[in-house]
UniProtKB/TrEMBL annotation:
Encoding gene per record: atpF
Homology family: Belongs to the ATPase B chain family.
Oligomeric form and interacting partners: F-type ATPases have 2 components, F(1) - the catalytic core - and F(0) - the membrane proton channel. F(1) has five subunits: alpha(3), beta(3), gamma(1), delta(1), epsilon(1). F(0) has four main subunits: a(1), b(1), b'(1) and c(10-14). The alpha and beta chains form an alternating ring which encloses part of the gamma chain. F(1) is attached to F(0) by a central stalk formed by the gamma and epsilon chains, while a peripheral stalk is formed by the delta, b and b' chains.
Taxonomic superkingdom: Eukaryota
PANTHER family found in the cross-reference section: ATP SYNTHASE SUBUNIT B, CHLOROPLASTIC
Record key words, sorted: ATP synthesis, CF(0), Chloroplast, Coiled coil, Hydrogen ion transport, Ion transport, Membrane, Plastid, Thylakoid, Transmembrane, Transmembrane helix, Transport
One family name in Pfam for this protein: ATP-synt_B
Protein name as catalogued: ATP synthase subunit b, chloroplastic
Extra remark beyond the main annotation: In plastids the F-type ATPase is also known as CF(1)CF(0).
């Protein structure tokens, strides 16, 4: 009986082996089947996988080469930019120094110009004061002279009578005649 049961189980087993399907139970799958499938996959997929990996490797190497070229170009551009920056900084320092010295020159020129202007204004002021003093002095002299003349005329008019007046005129005419004879 045991043989019958074993053969029945054996038939059942073989009858299910004739159908095709995937056994998703990992513990129930046959390790030999897995190794055969993996072996076939590796054998046939090896070329494709190798080509894919080689292509990927070449793309990565090309990307690295391009990156290196770009990096070298960027380094060169950076050095050029640094050189330009140094040049500009030197020029800026020169402009700054020249600007400061120009400012100092302008400051000194402005101070000198201001002193000259102040000196000229002081001279003009002194000349104006001197002129005004002379004018005031002349005005005082003219008033004094006019007052003296008016006083003298007033005194003469009060002291002179017609006879004295005629004698003074005759004396002056005589003096003028004598002067005329001397000049001839």
């Amino acid at each position: 009986m045991k043989n019958v049961t074993d053969s029945f189980l054996s038939l059942v087993h073989w009858s299910s082996a004739g159908s095709f399907g995937f056994n998703t139970d990992i513990l129930a799958t046959n390790p030999i089947n897995l190794s055969v499938v993996l072996g076939i996959s590796i054998f046939f997929g090896k070329g494709v996988l190798s080509d894919l990996l080689d292509n990927r490797k070449q793309r990565i190497l090309n990307t690295i080469r391009n990156s290196e070229k770009l990096r070298e170009g960027a380094i060169e551009e950076l050095e050029k930019a640094r050189a330009r920056l140094r040049k500009v900084e030197i020029e800026a320092d020169q402009f700054r120094v020249n600007g400061y010295s120009e400012i100092e020159r302008e400051k000194v020129n402005l101070i000198n110009s201001t002193y000259k202007t102040l000196e000229q204004l002081e001279n003009y002021k002194n000349e104006t004061i001197h002129f005004e003093q002379q004018r005031a002095s002349n005005q005082v002299r003219q008033r004094v002279f006019q007052q003296a003349l008016q006083g003298a005329l007033g005194t003469l008019n009060s002291c002179l009578n017609n006879e004295l007046h005629l004698r003074t005129i005759n004396a002056n005419i005589g003096i003028l005649g004598a002067m005329k004879e001397i000049t001839d």
